[in-house]
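Field log, afternoon session.

UNIT: design team B
ACTIVITY: writing a sequence onto a fixed backbone
BACKBONE:
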């Protein structure tokens, strides 16, 4: 495979592994310190690819601009209390989580 097709295959695999999950089911991972939040405006798959490829400079940029962040205890409690459903993707040893875009209410 070429580098481009390897990259496309990785993206396709990660897209296929992304799923919605209840925050309640992620508690043990959060307690282990292995959950990273992804800002709503960030691309979950791009972050996963960067972690998979150990792209440290890009990850540091995202950490500094809060596109990628540690889940604060208050956020975790809010998600727990509201049984929040999140997009999640495992990139060992991390579980990446992102709040889904809110559905537009129609009148």
């Amino acid at each position: 495979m070429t580098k481009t097709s390897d990259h496309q295959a990785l993206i396709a695999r990660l897209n296929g592994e992304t799923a919605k999950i209840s925050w309640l089911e992620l508690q043990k991972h959060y307690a282990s310190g292995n959950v990273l939040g992804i800002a709503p405006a960030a691309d979950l798959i791009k972050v996963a690819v960067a972690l998979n490829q150990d792209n440290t400079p890009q990850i540091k940029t995202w950490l500094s601009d809060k596109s990628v962040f540690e889940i604060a205890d208050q956020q975790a409690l809010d998600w727990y209390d509201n049984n929040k459903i999140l997009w999640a993707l495992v990139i060992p040893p991390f579980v990446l989580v992102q709040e889904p875009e809110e559905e537009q209410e129609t009148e």
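LOG NOTE: The chain has a mean pLDDT of 91.
NEXT ACTIVITY: expression trials, pending approval
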